[in-house]
C-alpha cells in the first residue's frame, strides 16, 4: 500500500512543510529532467525553501514527488513503531508509548494523520486523550528543566515557594472539582441539543443534495435543449416539385453532361426512404435514379438535398423533362465511423486531427462502443480547420454535442456512405466540454497580456512580487467576463464567479499563506518558554544536520578569499600593463601624425615643383635627367603598404545596442530557443512570428548556413539573435584601412556571430567568399533595402541565404537586449541531415549548395517547432530567394496551381504575402 493514496490536499501540504524546502530541493536536483518539466528555466537551488515547498504541493501528482513522499512517510512510521515497541518493552503502556514517541516526531502537530496512515481511524475522544498526554509529557520535561535550574537556589526559599504553590494547587483542585460538576451538566445538555441538531442537519443535507441534483439536471437539460437540431417542416414540402431526394454529384459523362444520382427520398414526416430503381420499368419519371444537375454544387462526390420533378418532354413525348433545385437549407446528417475504443479516443482524434478527402456540412463523428450501440459527436464543417492533410477542431470549439444511436437509426448506401433516417435528432444526450474551464480562463487572460505588454510595464526584480500580487486584480474584468461567458456558454454572473475563483487561486499561490501556517504561529507565540525552546532546538538541529555543509561552505569562503587576493594581484598587473599599452599607443599616434604631416609637406612640394616645371619645361627636363633616382624612405614604404592594405577590421564603436546579463542559465536548446524568441520580439519581430523566426535562425546557425538579412530592423534582429545564442552582441565587420586578412582570422572565436556591414561594397565583395570559408563563426549580413538584392550577382547566395525582414517586423526595435548564458553541460539540438526533401525547390533555378542549405535549415526548423506548417518555408526561405533572383512569376504559378500542388500554403499567409509584395510582381 502507498500512503500517498489516502492523503488529502491538507495532508499533502502538512507533510511537504514537515519535510522542508531544503530537503525537497535535493530531491529536485536528483531528478533534474523531471524538475525542468514543471519549472522550466530554473535550477532547484535557485529557489527559496518556501518556493520549493509550494512547488511540491502543486505538483504532488508527479511520480518523482509523490514517490519520494511515500518513502519518507514509510521511514517516519517505521521509526515511530520501533520506538513504541522499545518503550513497551520497558513496561510503558501503549498509549503513553505512543504519546512519548509522537512528541519528537513529524506528527506532533497532526496526531490524527499518523493514525490515518497506519490504518487505525480513532475516535475524537481517543485522539484528545493522546494529545493531552503529549502536552502532559511536554510539561513534565519543562518542569524537570525548571527543577534542575533551581538546584543552585536557596533551599529554604524553595521550600517556602513550594508551600505557597501547594496552597494554590489545593485551591485549584477545589475549583476543578466544582467546574467538573458544571461541565458534566453542560455536556448532558450539549448531547441532547447535539442529537437534535444532528437529526436536523441530516435532513437539511438530504434536502440540499436533492435540490442540487435537481438543479444540475435542470441546467443540463436546458443546455442540451439549446443544442437541439430543429428542421422547419415547411422546408420539406413543395407545391412546385414532386420529390425531395438525397443525391450525389457525379462526374460528367463523355458528352460533358452533369448529373446527380438519387439514393433516398425525404417524406413529409422528415424521414428518408431508400430509393430502389425498378429494373423492369423504364428509368423515367418517378423511376429515375439519375437526374440532370440544374442547380447546386458541382464538386464530384458532394451529397445534398435536391427538389425535383419530371414532366413530359414537349419535343419528344416518349421522354421526360427534369427540373431540379438544390435545397441548401436542408443538411442530411452523414455518419463517419472511426476505429476507436471509446468516446475519449474519438474526442482526441477530433482535437489532434484526421485525414479525409472532404467533410460533410453536418457530420456525426462516431465510434462503435458495444453490440448494436454507437456514440457520436455532431459537428458542422465550419467547426474544423485544415492543417496540411489533416482536419482538426478549431481552438474556438469549447463543447461537443454527444448522441447515442443504434443500427436501426441509419442506413448505408451503395457508395459506402451512411446517413440518419431522420433530419431531426432531438436534444443531445450530453454536452461535453473538451477544454478545462480554468485553463480556458487562463488562456483568455494570457492572450490579453502578452510578453511585450508585460515587459513594457518596466518592473524590476525588487518589486516583481508586488507587481505580480496586484497584476490580476488590475485586469479589465468587464470585457474578460463577457468573453468567458460567451465561450463557456454561461451567464455573466457565473462567468464573474469563475474569474474570481481563478484570481483567488492565483493570489493564494502568489501570497503563499495558509491557515495552518497562521495556526502554528499563534500556538508557538502564545508561550515564551515554548518559543525559546523551539528556537534552541531548531538551531541546534540545524547546525547538527548541516555541520558538513557549513564547514564546506566555510572552506569555500576561504578559497574564494585566496582567489580574490590572487585576482586583485592579477588586476593590478593588468592595470600596469594597460598603462604601458596606452603609453605605447600614444607614442605611435604621435609618430603617425608626424608621418602624415611629412606626407602632406612632400605632396605640397611635389605639387609646387610640377607647377614650376610647366612654366619651365626645358629646365625641368634637363634637371631631372641628371638627378639621381630618389631613394625610397621608410615612410614611403609604410605609406604604400597602408594604401595597399584597405583591409577588414572589427568595429563596435557605433553599435546601436546595450546589453543586460540574464540571471538564469540556459540548460538546453529549448531554453535557448525561448530566449531567442523573447529577444526577437524586443527587436521588433511580430509576436506570432517570433517563435518560427527563432527556429529558422537557430537552424541556420547550427548548420553554419550564413544569412543575409535585408529590410528594416535587420541589424537589431542580428544583434538580438547574437545576445540570445552566444551571450554577447555580435561584432561588426567593416571595411577600413587596417590589418590584413590573416590577422583578422586570428581574432575569430569559435561559435561567435559576426555581422557584416555593407555586404555589397564593391571594394571588398570579392573578399567575402574567403572570409566566410571560416567555419568557426556564423556570419549575418545586414542591408536596409531588399530591392538591391536583384542587381547583385546571383552566385552571392551560395555564401549567404537571403531573409527579408519587412514581412516579419511590426514595430521599432529596443536598444537593450538580454544576454543569455549556457551551462557547462548544455544540451544542444542535434541537426537532422536526412529529412531534407523539399519538392518545391526543384521548380527553381538554384545551385546545389544553396538548395542543400535551405533544405536542411527548413527541415530542422519544423523539428524544433514540432509541426509541418509550410507557410514559413515560403515566407522565410523560398520567397526571398525567388524575389532576389527574379523568379517570382514561377513562384506565383506554383502557388496558384491547384491541380499539381507542390506546397500547402494557407489562405491567410497567401493574403499576407500579397498585401506586402503585391501579386508577386518581379
Automatic annotation (TrEMBL):
Residues 155-228, 550-605 form a coiled coil. The keyword Coiled coil applies. Keywords: Coiled coil. This is ATPase involved in DNA repair. It comes from Anaerostipes hadrus.
Amino acid at each position: 500500500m502507498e500512503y500517498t493514496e489516502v492523503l488529502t490536499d491538507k495532508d499533502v501540504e502538512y507533510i511537504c512543510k514537515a519535510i522542508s524546502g531544503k530537503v525537497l530541493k535535493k530531491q529536485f536536483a536528483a531528478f533534474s529532467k523531471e524538475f525542468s518539466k514543471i519549472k522550466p528555466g530554473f535550477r532547484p537551488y535557485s529557489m527559496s525553501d518556501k518556493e520549493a515547498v509550494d512547488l511540491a504541493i502543486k505538483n504532488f501528482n508527479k511520480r518523482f514527488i509523490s514517490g519520494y513522499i511515500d518513502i519518507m512517510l514509510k521511514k517516519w512510521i517505521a521509526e515511530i513503531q520501533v520506538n513504541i515497541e522499545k518503550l513497551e518493552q520497558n513496561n510503558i503502556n501503549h498509549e503513553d508509548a505512543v504519546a512519548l514517541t509522537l512528541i519528537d516526531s513529524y506528527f506532533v502537530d497532526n496526531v490524527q494523520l499518523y493514525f490515518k496512515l497506519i490504518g487505525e481511524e480513532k475516535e475524537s475522544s481517543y485522539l484528545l486523550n493522546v494529545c493531552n498526554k503529549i502536552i502532559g509529557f511536554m510539561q513534565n520535561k519543562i518542569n524537570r528543566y525548571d527543577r534542575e535550574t533551581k538546584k543552585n537556589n536557596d533551599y529554604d526559599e524553595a521550600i517556602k515557594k513550594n508551600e505557597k504553590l501547594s496552597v494554590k494547587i489545593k485551591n485549584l483542585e477545589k475549583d476543578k472539582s466544582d467546574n467538573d460538576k458544571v461541565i458534566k451538566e453542560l455536556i448532558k445538555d450539549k448531547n441532547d441539543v447535539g442529537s437534535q441538531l444532528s437529526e436536523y442537519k441530516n435532513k437539511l443535507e438530504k434536502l440540499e443534495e436533492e435540490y442540487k441534483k435537481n438543479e444540475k439536471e435542470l441546467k443540463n437539460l436546458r443546455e442540451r435543449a439549446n443544442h437541439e437540431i430543429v428542421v422547419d417542416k415547411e422546408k420539406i414540402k413543395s407545391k412546385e416539385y414532386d420529390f425531395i431526394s438525397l443525391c450525389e454529384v457525379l462526374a460528367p459523362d463523355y458528352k460533358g453532361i452533369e448529373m446527380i444520382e438519387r439514393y433516398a427520398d425525404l417524406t413529409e414526416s422528415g424521414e428518408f426512404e431508400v430509393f430502389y430503381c425498378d429494373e423492369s420499368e423504364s428509368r423515367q419519371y418517378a423511376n429515375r435514379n439519375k437526374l440532370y444537375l440544374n442547380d447546386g454544387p458541382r464538386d464530384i462526390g458532394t451529397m445534398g438535398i435536391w427538389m425535383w420533378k419530371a414532366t413530359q418532354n414537349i419535343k419528344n413525348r416518349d421522354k421526360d423533362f427534369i427540373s431540379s433545385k438544390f435545397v441548401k437549407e436542408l443538411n442530411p446528417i452523414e455518419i463517419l465511423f472511426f476505429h476507436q475504443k471509446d468516446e475519449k479516443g474519438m474526442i482526441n482524434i477530433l482535437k489532434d486531427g484526421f485525414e479525409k478527402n472532404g467533410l460533410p456540412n453536418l457530420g456525426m463523428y462516431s465510434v462503435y462502443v458495444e453490440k448494436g450501440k454507437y456514440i457520436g459527436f455532431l459537428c458542422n464543417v465550419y467547426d474544423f480547420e485544415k492543417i496540411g492533410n489533416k482536419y482538426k477542431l478549431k481552438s474556438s470549439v469549447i463543447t461537443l454535442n454527444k448522441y447515442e444511436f443504434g443500427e436501426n437509426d441509419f442506413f448505408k448506401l451503395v457508395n459506402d456512405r451512411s446517413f440518419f433516417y431522420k433530419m431531426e435528432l432531438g436534444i443531445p444526450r450530453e454536452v461535453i466540454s473538451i477544454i478545462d474551464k480554468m485553463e480556458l480562463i487562463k488562456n483568455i487572460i494570457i492572450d490579453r497580456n502578452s510578453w511585450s505588454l508585460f515587459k513594457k510595464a518596466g518592473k524590476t526584480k525588487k518589486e516583481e512580487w508586488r507587481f505580480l500580487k496586484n497584476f490580476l486584480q488590475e485586469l479589465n474584468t468587464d470585457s474578460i467576463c463577457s468573453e468567458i461567458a460567451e465561450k463557456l456558454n454561461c451567464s455573466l454572473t457565473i462567468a464573474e464567479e469563475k474569474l474570481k475563483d481563478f484570481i483567488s487561486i492565483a493570489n493564494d499561490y502568489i501570497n503563499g499563506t495558509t491557515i495552518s501556517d497562521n495556526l502554528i504561529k499563534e500556538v508557538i507565540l502564545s508561550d515564551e518558554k515554548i518559543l525559546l525552546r523551539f528556537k534552541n532546538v531548531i538551531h541546534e538541529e540545524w547546525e547538527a544536520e548541516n555541520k558538513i555543509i557549513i564547514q564546506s561552505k566555510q572552506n569555500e569562503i576561504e578559497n574564494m578569499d585566496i582567489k580574490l587576493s590572487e585576482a586583485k594581484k592579477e588586476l593590478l598587473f593588468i592595470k600596469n600593463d594597460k598603462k604601458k599599452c596606452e603609453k605605447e599607443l600614444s607614442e605611435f599616434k604621435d609618430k603617425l601624425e608626424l608621418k602624415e604631416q611629412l606626407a602632406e609637406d612632400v605632396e605640397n612640394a611635389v605639387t609646387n615643383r610640377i607647377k614650376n616645371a610647366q612654366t619651365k619645361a626645358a629646365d625641368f627636363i634637363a634637371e631631372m635627367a641628371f638627378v639621381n633616382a630618389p631613394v625610397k624612405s621608410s615612410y614611403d614604404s609604410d605609406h604604400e603598404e597602408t594604401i595597399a592594405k584597405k583591409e577588414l577590421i572589427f568595429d563596435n564603436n557605433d553599435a546601436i545596442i546595450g546589453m543586460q546579463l540574464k540571471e538564469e542559465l540556459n540548460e538546453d536548446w529549448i531554453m535557448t530557443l525561448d530566449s531567442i524568441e523573447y529577444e526577437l520580439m524586443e527587436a521588433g519581430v511580430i509576436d506570432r512570428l517570433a517563435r518560427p523566426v527563432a527556429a529558422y535562425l537557430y537552424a541556420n546557425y547550427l548548420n553554419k548556413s550564413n544569412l543575409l538579412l535585408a529590410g528594416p530592423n535587420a541589424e537589431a534582429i542580428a544583434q538580438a539573435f547574437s545576445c540570445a545564442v552566444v551571450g554577447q552582441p555580435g561584432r561588426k565587420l567593416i571595411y577600413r584601412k587596417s590589418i590584413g586578412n590573416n590577422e583578422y582570422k586570428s581574432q575569430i572565436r569559435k561559435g561567435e556571430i559576426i555581422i557584416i556591414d555593407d555586404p555589397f561594397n564593391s571594394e571588398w565583395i570579392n573578399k567575402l567568399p574567403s572570409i566566410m570559408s571560416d567555419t568557426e563563426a556564423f556570419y549575418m549580413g545586414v542591408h536596409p533595402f531588399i530591392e538591391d538584392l536583384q542587381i547583385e550577382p546571383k552566385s552571392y547566395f551560395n555564401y549567404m541565404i537571403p531573409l527579408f525582414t519587412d514581412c516579419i517586423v511590426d514595430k521599432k526595435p529596443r536598444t537593450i537586449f538580454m544576454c543569455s548564458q549556457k551551462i557547462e553541460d548544455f544540451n544542444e539540438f542535434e541537426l537532422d541531415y536526412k529529412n531534407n526533401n523539399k519538392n518545391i525547390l526543384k521548380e527553381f533555378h538554384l545551385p546545389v549548395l544553396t538548395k542543400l542549405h535551405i533544405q536542411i535549415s527548413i527541415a530542422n526548423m519544423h523539428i524544433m517547432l514540432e509541426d509541418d506548417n509550410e507557410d514559413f518555408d515560403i515566407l522565410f526561405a523560398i520567397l526571398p530567394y525567388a524575389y532576389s533572383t527574379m523568379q517570382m512569376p514561377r513562384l506565383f504559378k506554383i502557388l496558384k496551381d491547384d491541380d499539381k500542388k507542390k506546397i500547402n500554403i494557407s489562405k491567410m499567409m497567401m493574403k499576407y504575402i500579397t498585401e506586402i509584395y503585391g501579386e508577386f510582381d518581379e
